[in-house]
Amino acid sequence: MQDITKEVFLNIKIWEADKLHSDKLWGSISISTKDAALATLDKYGNVSSWFTDERVIYDG
Fold this sequence. Notes:
Elements: H1 2-5, E1 9-16, E2 24-32, H2 33-36, E3 40-41, E4 47-49
């Protein structure tokens, strides 16, 4: 809950792993935990709701 109310970000990086060649970065995204959880805050700054189902936030 504290991560949602503060400015905490998730940094997600997608890599292609290869045994023969060096790994390649396919893409990345930086998103706040509030946006990732689709959280809403009430007028006092408390978390009133958030999304609890699985969803895609990056489909690079």
